[in-house]
Write a structure and sequence with these properties.
Layout: H1 4-20, H2 30-38, E1 61-67, E2 70-77, E3 82-87, H3 98-103, E4 108-113, H4 130-144, E5 149-154, H5 156-167, E6 172-178, H6 185-194, H7 206-218, H8 240-253, H9 259-263, H10 269-272, E7 280-284, H11 293-297, E8 306-310, H12 322-338
Parallel strand pairs: 3-4, 3-5, 5-6, 6-7, 7-8
Antiparallel strand pairs: 1-2, 2-4
Helix pairs in contact: 4-5, 7-8
Length: 349
């Protein structure tokens, strides 16, 4: 549908293969399909993949959902229980959020999105804002037949979760907001001017090196372009395999990699948070550059509705301490199951 010429070529290839096959089955309707599949003889050592529902809870599989606003790529885990939508940070895909997806899949149906224009989702149809991203997520719930879902969001994703809860509170259960973005107006201008690079493909492949170094420097400084001792972070440089994963997400996203990412630097979190009417947990790990959200949220968040926790670690960053990761996932799990986070003061685990 998107590239008719490519579809025609793929169809011709399939037709050629059919002409050469000697074990064809004539299937005229859905009823005949089941019998044909039962009789299918596979080569030794080859087995049909199990249905998603049969996969063990930690397993992650991939899915596409056609929504009224475009095709969304998902990473999914869990087959039973309440739905949990995981909304990632901006830039790249949801691949690095595998620890959250698998870690919260026990007793839940978890699905993490690639934003429109990121990862393997279709490009956005128009301008992108936190409001349009929230509408994209609601459209996804519609397409999946989900009336209400809990939402876990990080950084950009925490703002999208907040916006969903403000514009459609009946569609949102509990929300976890990891590192909600609170940026001063002058810093917003600085970030929007300097943070995002042009990664247009270069005939020498220099854009690939730029993406790699850009992702690496984000772990070294906040913001990445402020190469000063005062801006240094305590994370260390990720291993090459982890950097490859981060860089690949940007390469997959192409020229639209920054569309969702930019929205976090222009969203007025202080104005929207007081309108929240759903239970929320505001949290962040000790080395999260947006940990200031824990203190920034308190004066404006609805009293008695929002809980706070400084988690032991950030589980989706490379190579977290295993015990701290388990403790952090337990914080999320407890809140999502019980909403019991009143005693989870900053620093509690």
């Amino acid at each position: 549908a998107q590239r008719p010429g490519g579809y025609a070529a793929a169809w011709a290839m399939c037709a050629d293969a059919v002409e050469e096959a000697d074990n064809l089955a004539d299937v005229r309707d859905a009823a005949g399909l089941a019998g044909a599949l039962e009789a299918l003889q596979l080569p030794a050592g080859v087995a049909l993949p199990p249905p998603a529902e049969a996969l063990p809870a930690p397993s992650i599989w991939y899915d596409y959902v056609e929504t009224a606003r475009g095709r969304i790529h998902l990473r999914r885990a869990g087959a039973e229980g309440d739905p949990l939508l995981v909304i990632p940070t901006g830039g790249g895909s949801s691949a690095q959020f595998a620890p959250v997806i698998a870690g919260l899949a026990e007793g839940r149906r978890v699905f993490a999105v690639d934003y429109p224009g990121n990862g393997l989702s279709a490009p956005p149809a128009g301008e992108v804002s936190t409001a349009t991203l929230a509408q994209d997520m609601l459209s996804l719930l519609d397409a999946m037949g989900i009336d209400q879902a809990d939402v876990w969001g990080s950084h950009t994703g925490s703002l999208v979760a907040l916006e969903m809860a403000v514009i459609a509170p009946e569609r949102v259960g509990r929300i976890v907001m990891e590192g909600p973005v609170f940026i001063a107006p002058d810093f917003q201008t600085d970030l929007l001017t300097n943070y995002f690079l042009d990664f247009t493909p270069d005939k020498w492949g220099q854009h690939l090196l730029a993406i790699w170094n850009w992702r690496r420097d984000m772990f070294m400084y906040w913001p990445w372009y402020n190469v000063e001792r005062s801006a240094a972070r305590k994370l260390g440089v990720p291993a090459a395999g982890d950097l490859h994963l981060y860089a690949l997400g940007i390469v997959e996203s192409g020229p639209t990699y920054d569309r969702a990412y930019r929205t976090a630097f222009s969203y007025d979190t202080r104005a929207r948070l007081p309108q929240l009417s759903r239970p929320a947990l505001v949290c962040a790990g000790p080395n999260d550059q947006l940990k200031n959200g824990l203190t920034e949220a308190r004066p404006v968040a609805p009293v008695g509705l929002v809980s706070y926790a400084e988690t032991p670690t950030t589980v989706w960053w490379p190579d977290p301490d295993p015990d701290e990761a388990r403790q952090t996932l337990a914080v999320y799990d407890r809140f999502l199951r019980e909403g019991a986070a009143d005693d989870m003061e900053p620093g509690a685990s």
